[in-house]
Specification:
Elements: H1 3-6, H2 28-32, E1 38-39, H3 51-63, H4 73-87, E2 96-99, H5 102-113, E3 119-122, H6 129-136, E4 140-143, E5 147-148, E6 154-155, H7 158-168, E7 172-176, H8 188-200, E8 204-208, E9 235-239, E10 253-256, H9 260-272, H10 282-294, H11 296-320, E11 324-326, E12 334-339, H12 345-352, E13 354-355, E14 357-358, E15 369-373, H13 378-392
Helix pairs in contact: 3-10, 4-10, 5-6, 11-13, 12-13
The structure holds pyridoxal-5'-phosphate.
Length: 398
Amino acid sequence: MNQADINSFDFESRINRRGTSCHKWDFDKRLTGREGLLPFWVADMDFRVAPVIEEALEKRLEHGIFGYTARPDSLDEALIGWFFRRHRWNIKTTQILETPGIVPFIHMFLQEFTSPGDSVIIQEPVYYPFRKAIMNNGRNAVVNHLIRDDNGLWAMDLDGLSRLIDESGAKTLIFCSPHNPVGRVWREQELLNLADLCRAKAVTVVSDEIHADLVHPGYRHIPWLSLPEERLPRSLALVSATKTFNIPGLTTAFAIVPDSDFRHSCQSMLTALGLGEGSSSPLSYAAAEAAWREGEPWLNALLGQIGRNDALLRERLTGELPGVLPGELEGSYLEWLHMDYPGNLWEKLLDEGIWLSRGIDFGRGGETYMRMNIACPSSQLEEGIDMMVRALSGFRSP
Ligand SMILES: Cc1ncc(COP(=O)(O)O)c(C=O)c1O
């Protein structure tokens, strides 16, 4: 491959994902009762992966033996290199723990570091598996609701959080940075304010940064653990290459835990579950390493495509559906659309053939929202917008 081929990527071909047991495309009948829907819900992308990832996988497949495989040191080097280059974050090899996934880690963490009935804080609307992890483990989800600031931007209510910590006695916060679904990339001052509060009240922060790389021009993701150490409460961060590079089916995920006592406790937790020696497959390791070593040009091109899709969506909504208002997309490829229409809007959209995520599933505050995944070819996005227009043009939002 010459340099020009390596840096030109196809984000416009529509690849048929049906028939691959694809969560997003193949389960519409089971999950919605309808068939043939155009999906914009679950957060993976309808783009082919970076050629460097395919090449790494092909090379690994050619070998033909897929025996027990431990995480290679070269993968840790690739991870460290990536987070330093992209985020100016210095991670040390010793701080890296491997986990079978971010959501499984949160479940394990709650079992190990909290007790049944304990309160655990989330900031809804937020990625709903946070609430599920708390409930699945018999803990009590307490919510510090995000609020809209004077500029219409979603913000953390730190006064509310302070009161909530005092009232509930919660000692754990599961934090989403950047935030899914509202698309915020938290500013340094917001993070520092949160850190100061959590440190003062001895609240442990689990910072889920899976969307760290999906940040749009004008914004910068600040890793939680890159804040000054003396400002931070007990903390860990969760990272992976799977969201950025569209390889969530090739699971790998990592907890970064700088504090050695805390890290040893996390390591013991993993060991006690039989997960101490590496929990992913040789293909997953190969994909993640290739992504972090050589995936940067593809990611930069991807962000261009998401930016163009965002502009397309905004332009068409302004002209054709002014009742549907997207928030500022600072990070991620998930649009948080304000859609205040009467009746069962989600069903109405399904009837027209478009499948969005229901805002209410992300918690209170999401009642009048839908989440739309725009990581797809632009013709597919156009088709989805056409469906929304057909579904809603007869209705007037209040
Ligand atoms: C905030 C957030 N955390 C975690 C995940 C999933 O992580 P994993 O597949 O490693 O469990 C997602 C996927 O959408 C997500 O948005």
